[in-house]
Amino acid sequence: MSKPKTPPNPGVSSTLWIGPEYILDMAATFSDVAINLADGWVDPLDPKKNVIYTNAVLALELYFKALLVERMTDPAYVKISEGNEFIEVTEEEYLDPEEAIVAIHHSRLVVPKEHQTHDIHALYLSLNEDTRKKIVAEIAELNRSIASEEVLLEFLSKIKNYFVSKRYAFEFYQEAVPVDSNYLFSLIPVLKGVRKALS
C-alpha cells in the first residue's frame, strides 16, 4: 500500500472538528448501498455482486478504522500585519515573547500506520476484546452459522482482500461458478451485525 500523503496545513482557513462518528456515518452509507443492492436474488455472475462485495467490505473497514483512528494536531501560527492581513509564521516565531502571534489549532483523524490496510481480518483483530464480543453477539443473532469468533475470523480471512479483488474483478479469470457465490449470504448479516454493534 502506498504511503498516504500528508495534507497541507490549512493555514488561516477555518476547519471543522470531526470525530470518529464521521467515519461511522460514512461506513453506514457504504453499508446501505451494499444492503440495498443485495436485497433479493443476485446472480453470481452479475457484476452487481462485485459492487455489493466492494461496498460491504469497505463499510466493514471503515467501521473498524473508526475505532482505531487517532487525532493529530497541526497548528498554524499567524500574526496580523499593520495592514490587517494574516501572515503565516513559524513555530519559532510563535514562541518569541516579543511577537503577538496566534496559534490556530487544526486537527484531523489519522489511521495509525499499523492499521493502514484494507485487510479487514487484521483490522478486526486490532479491536479490543469487548468490542469483538459485542460484534460476534450481534452477528450470531442474524446468522447462526457465524456464532463464534473462530467462525467469524475464518470468514473474514476468506474475504479480507475483497476491497481490492472485487473492485478489480475484471483483472481476474471469471469462473462459470464462482467459488464465493454463497459468501453474500454471510457477508450481509456480518455487515448488519457489525453496524448494529458499533452504532
Structural notes for this entry:
- By secondary structure, the protein is of the alpha+beta class.
- The longest helix is centred in the first third of the chain and has 19 residues, at 48-66.
- Helices cover 46% and strands 12% of the residues.
- The chain has a three-stranded antiparallel β-sheet with strand order 2-1-3.
- A hairpin with a 5-residue loop joins strand 1 (70-80) and strand 2 (86-89).
- The model has no long low-confidence stretch (mean pLDDT 89).
- It has helices spanning 20-37, 48-66, 91-95, 120-125, 129-142, 149-159, 162-165, 184-198; strands spanning 70-80, 86-89, 102-110.
Q: Features of this protein?
A:
single chain; 199 residues; alpha+beta; three-stranded antiparallel beta sheet; 8 helices; 3 strands; 46% helix
Which sheet architecture does the biggest sheet show? 3 strands, antiparallel
The rounded Rg comes to 22 Å
Q: In which range does the helix fraction lie?
A: 40-55%
Mean pLDDT: 89
Write the layout of secondary structure elements.
Layout: H1 20-37, H2 48-66, E1 70-80, E2 86-89, H3 91-95, E3 102-110, H4 120-125, H5 129-142, H6 149-159, H7 162-165, H8 184-198
Helix pairs in contact: 1-2, 1-8, 2-8, 5-8
Brief description of this entry?
Helices cover 46% and strands 12% of the residues.
